[in-house]
Batch of 2 targets.
Target 1
Amino acid sequence: MPRPIVELRDVTKIYTLGKNRIYALNRVSISIDKGDFVTIMGSSGSGKSTLLNMVGCLDLPTSGKVLINGKGISGLDDDGLTSIRRNNIGFIFQQFNLIQTLSALENVEMPMIFTGTSPDKRRKKALELFRKAQLPAEYEQHKPNELSGGQQQRVAIARALANDPPILLADEPTGNLDSKTGHSVMELLQELNTAGTTVVVVTHDPRLEEFSNTTIRLQDGAICHENC
Amino acid sequence: MRIADPLKDNMYAELARRNLRRQSIRTILAAIGIIIGVIAISSMGILGNTMKMSVTESFADIGDKLMVYPAPGEETISQRQIGQIRKVGGIDRIIPLRSNAERVEYRNEETFASVYDIDEEGLVTLVELEKGRFFKSGSTDCVLGSGVAENLGATVGSKVIIDDSRLRVVGILTERGLGFDIDTDSGIFTSSDMYEKLYPDEEEGYSSVIITVDDIDELDRVQEDIEDRINKKDELIMVFATNMITESIGGVFDAISLFLMGIGSISLLVAGVSILNVMLMSTMERTKEIGVMKAVGASRRDILRMFLLEALFLGVAASLIGGLLTLGGSYMVISFIMDDAAYLLKPSNILYILEGVLFGIGTSLLGGMYPAWKASRMRPLDALRYE
């Protein structure tokens, strides 16, 4: 049996708010295999964003283990986590989060700067990703604020793919899009998944479930199997 | 080409440039602070330095000589002592001389001058002839310093009167300016025979000796050697290095320059604080952007580099502008005050401008350091959540 690409073992995350300890995640264990398309569902406050942050190496668990590609992330410092993210994970955000000073194409190039890719290779790869994200070439030099929401999210997806990460993490990728645009963005993610990329989508929108082959439901910081 | 504006090879630099332009008014205001600071610091330095140069250049002497005088209680420097001095290594030339202050007349004019007995060879090392020739040894001819000639209205061929003797002027010296050895401008130079005729009662020996050295760096050593050799038991002679005077004057002006630059650097300090402020604001505004960059793989060093580059660009641009403005501004001021703008282009003044520019760049970097460090330490998750 192949090793899961993402594995959480008994992950607990506790936030302290004043005197209250809040269990954002309570002994959550999940395992995601390479090539999976997983949706993590749950209402607001269910812990799904916290779970995404753990998988995305943006945060460390209070207890338990997070393994990315079999490698534990506990004990890593800021730069150590950055390096894991850089090589393994592409992020897609609800707000797109493109860098406003950069053109659409430059935004796609950006993650490759941090891996030290040469300018020529960067440019070539970015153009390729632009096509892959089904973005018309005329938008290459546009600044993010000159693009529609759907186009921005496509640029963000192209950016997420820049360093060929095995995992794509999307946090409410359709949250700021109308349903038609959202649907086409999800179709793009599905295409990428078919091509081999593992996709994890966090959402509270049940319509996205149809794209995935696995759904994890969270309630009050724990995985919920029935009646959620 | 499909790509109209390809990203420059160094994206960090390009990002820094664009971020500075994004807040252009703020950038310009911060730059003005640095520009003013650089102008203040370098123009203050130039002011002090130019004052120093204009004063020290009025001295003919660059301070490369030793002066030997009889010690208090001694009348003269003897031939034997000169023989001892001659044994000291590193001496280029020994110019013994005798002198007396005297009233000099020519037609209806009279002036006070110093009458010198100094050999021709010695005199030419101190000053040049403007016209005429030197006196022959044993003759009753004389050479006048420029000041004496001017005061008396005498020229080559004139006969000046000292006591009852008439001396024919055969040469006039060029103006030399104030010296620390002897003041040739107010001197009358004549032969030993004539000198002795004028002052028959004077004791044997010389009233002073001028010594030039082979290597100016050896000046102190030669001075000590002479003192050691002659002042063995008793204090017979005093030796002065003429550079002591120029050095102490130079030292005073260096201190003035430093003080003025200190005042100038206060404005640079203020500029540094304003850079700190501007960059801190900019990191706050870009918190989310920093979070995104860190999420997609920017390390602490990458972020640090980005922000430091911004501070560096701002500093370099503003400091260079400040340097150029100083050059232009002090050209005008110096030509107005000194009537001679050539002072400005002296290497030491250019050095002050360079110093100002370097201080400007340094201050910007220093001001940018804390915000850059702060940005690099942001946790990506907190930064992403920031609204």
Target 2
Amino acid sequence: MNLTLADLKVGETAIIDSFDVEQLPMKLVEMGCLPGNEVGLLQLAPNKDPLYLNISGSHLAIRRETATRIFIRKKGE
Amino acid sequence: MSKNINVALIGNPNTGKSSVFNHLTGLNQKTGNYPGITVEKRQGICRLPRGVKARILDLPGTYSLNASSLDENVVVELLLNKKDKDFPDVAVVVSDVENLKRNLLLFTQIKDLNIPTILVINMSDRMRRKGISIDTRKMEQLFHTKVALVSARKNEGIDVVKEHIAAYKTLSTQSCLNINQIDQDYFESLARTFSNQSLYKLWLVITQDVNFAKVERKKMEAENADHMRTPSFLKRLQQKETIKRYQFINSVLKECYVKDSSKATDLRGKLDRVLTHKVWGFVIFFVVLLSIFQALYDWSSVPMDFIDASFVQLSDWAKTSIPSWMATNLIAEGIIPGLGGIVIFVPQIAMLFLFISILEETGYMSRVVFIMDRVMRRFGLSGKSVIPLISGTACAIPAIMATRNIENWKERLVTILVTPFTTCSARLPVYLILISLIIPDERILGANLQGLVLMIFYLLGFGMALLAAFVLHKILPQNQTSYFVVEMPNYRIPLLKNVILTIVEKTKSFVLEAGKVILAISILLWVLASNGPGETFKNAPQEVAKSVSVTDATFDQQLSAYKLEHSYLGIVGKGIEPAIRPLGYDWKIGIAIVSSFAAREVFVGTLATIYNVGEDKEETIKERMAAETYADGSPVFTLASGLSLMVFYAFAMQCMSTLAIVRKETNSWRWPAIQLFTMTLIAYVCALVTFQYFSF
């Protein structure tokens, strides 16, 4: 099953698994969105969009559309 | 004379870089929590130990040297251009102790340009609360440079930074990353083609759309097209570079940085749960806005009445005390009332900037961006458009400049085009005087009715901005996918010094800029109102004397009315009267509207000038307006005409400075022309409907 960041529930954390760098803004990668890093969902705006994340210590918000392009795996898997 | 040391202050947004700048230079500078607030290039002189001086350049906040916005591009452009007179002898990278890892990415990039680079770790006062400890000595060894722990809030550690700057020549320029590690084949072949050049700089030039580099880039394309490769190949290498940099950073931090999470407090999380809540988030945002507008009205009436009365007295004094050869009438009837028309709004403008700067400094603005993004997107805007729209309540000019960090061009263009609909402080004078004339000073459910009407007009401005954005969104073609990455900074108590500097600086520039225009227009108006063509104006006394109804008591008043009507100004006003009569305005208001196309705030000053011409009675502008009647004795300013006038000012594009800045930001006269025409048309139609509706 291919989980993406968009599948996370508020309060959950996971590990970033993979993504196609061409579909992401470079800025996101530079802020720590890299395979192997931990990511947590802190808050959701109304309609579950955008997402307020803690990616490897960086607190930032991205849109759902971007989140669906980032694949994750549960911790320990 | 020895040469000053050139220092570039660089850092991620929200690291308190501007506060460090304030401490180093003592110059005024705005700092904020919203990414990209430092858009202007700011410089200052810093006195170092042993009589040396440094010229400090505060560069826009940037996350990395891979620029994704106009602001970030400024930084890259400077650092790649050794011939630039601002090219730094030494770079000072400011980082935030809580986001150190991410901040260090930029540090390693700057260091790899082989510029001496000092690392400043700011907000050291928060270390204990967050359970962080750093071995700076060890860090200095691993990064081959000097490190300074600083607390801009408590003014600690600034002297250490100064010492390091003074000794910049002793710093190592060793790179952090061996660029060959990213892709050996690619970079070795690059090195063969361009010998004697820094590979990292070449790499930045290849991957960047840096303006100055275009020439160089063409040369490169011609010499070896192979190195340009496809964008996707380059982007993959960029990602690899980022991974390598983080590996290096992690290896350094492991040896000198300890964080004990159990000691950390989670204030951010608690506040976020409320402020970004699905329901409470919006309720709080609405209450914050409501409070600001109520305060704006309630707190400013006392100083405003005082200023109003003072200028009447000043004008009176000028009439009797200034010798007549000094153009007494021009001073007393043109210049002083004109200036009074602007000074009177200083309390309100200062207060507006106070609130906006507090919202930015605390970090609350980013939460508003977060909760509003989805809503704004429906109108073709971005959550980031909220900042320009709210800043627009102060002035459209900085607001339009604040759109620079919206990455998507279409979202940015739409924001630029609709921002002038928001109620800027120049409209405030018009609203305030009209509201106090036509709306009773009563309370409804505890709220001031006048304040409520004012808020409705603010909402009307926002509403029209959103409507216009929606239409534009449908008309304009989509040109690229929209990325949205917003940093959510820590909550912070605003630094009083920063807030005060912001208010003083912004208010001063508003008064000076607007003051110039208003003064010029006041003088022009006075001249036009005091002179007229041909015999009718010259023979005014005889003409008035011929009138049947005239008596000795009313002669003076009728004479001045007659003169104004037959002056050049009166002729202009009369000329446009047929066009504005359906909106409920007489020709005097017409004159005020025409002169307002230079700048809205001229309105009150113009009316002051017009009504004051030839008047000897001391009255405040408001009383004079209330007493203004048509020939049949009915008042000029009624509920219908007053609301219609306010609606016209709400929507019309009456600001030359805004048009100029839109031209600059969009690089075309097309967009300001469209704004001027469309907004004024909307204003005319809406004012027409308003007047006709309230007249019946």
